[in-house]
Amino acid sequence: MKRLLLIVFAIGCGREPASTRTALPAETGALGAENPAFVTADTATIEVPLTLPSQLYVEHDATVYARSGGIVESILVDLGSKVAAGQALARLESADQRIALAQAEERLTNSRQTLERYRELKVAGVVTAEDSERVEFEHRQAMLMLRQAQRDLALTRIVAPFAGVVTARKTRLHHLVSSGDTLFRVTAMNPILAAVHVPEAAAGALRLGTEAEIEGLGGHTARARVIRASPTIDPASGAREIVLQVSGDSRLTPGSSVTVRLGGERRQVVTVPRSVVDKDGYVQVWSEERTTLRALTLGTELAGDLVEVVRGLAPGERLVRTAQ
């Protein structure tokens, strides 16, 4: 009996206690290290402005297409030209359309004269009601043909849809274009807008008219204010879309990548160590015994090597931090 107990004791001592074993991620190839460690997304209360990335845009930014086929006869503007609403940008050859318009005008004139004569004859009882109705119908058809000819001619004149600046020119003189071909792009330079997605915890304190600061990549800054806000929270991201209008004296231009700073009230945010986020804003989330690569939207840099997570992570989620 003593010998049996000694054998069992020896076997038990040769095993590693279950409490000392550490579960390693299943996708070790994605971790890039042999000894991964875990950190947990936490929350913190801060009083610094919310910092969000955005890209400036304008409401009126349109591609001008050819709505009729033909040869480009003249180009009246160039890249960077300021244009007014309805101003001609280019013209297509229109000889055929002018001939068709002249024919339609002549046809309408003859139709009108015939109609007036038949109306007089109908009163005198010389023509039947059927003949009079036929002439009335032909006159209406002549009017429609004239309107069509006028439109065909108008479409050979390429015009600006609104006041702005020509930001692209895609055609050349004497170039054959088809209906639907891109010719120009016209952009209204004001007002300049920026859209951001604000976390629910911070969105409640923002109101229409709330002031903000916009900073461009070159260090240029401008004031902005909230002009629109979504009435609902996006369930997928837990954020509300906020639209800001940049002040008119700004040196920033549409399309620029900017940083938006708004709000300064006490708010609760999700935080993670900056070291677990790679340079492209991705983290490895540990869930259900495997890792998943996830993109984050980061906000303010905080003390203690922490960074605010605006979107992409919930408090309590575990992240993989590769041992250095």
Report on the architecture of this protein.
It is a single chain. The chain has about 325 residues and is an alpha+beta fold. The chain has 4 domains: about 25-45 and about 265-320, Beta Barrel (conserved putative lor/sdh protein from methanococcus maripaludis s2 fold), CATH 2.40.420; about 55-60 and about 190-260, Efflux pump adaptor protein, beta barrel domain (Elongation Factor Tu (Ef-tu), domain 3, Beta Barrel); about 60-90 and about 155-185, Beta Barrel (OB fold (Dihydrolipoamide Acetyltransferase, E2P)), CATH 2.40.50.100; about 95-155, Helix hairpin bin (Helix Hairpins, Orthogonal Bundle), CATH 1.10.287. About 20% of the residues lie in helices and about 40% in strands. The chain contains 4 helices and 23 strands. It has a 7-stranded antiparallel sheet. The protein has a 4-stranded antiparallel sheet with strand order 1-23-19-20, with no helix packed on it. A 4-stranded antiparallel sheet has the order 2-18-22-21, with no helix packed on it. Strand 21 (about 295-300) and strand 22 form a beta hairpin. The protein starts with a helix and ends with a strand. Residues about 1-35 have low confidence and may be disordered.
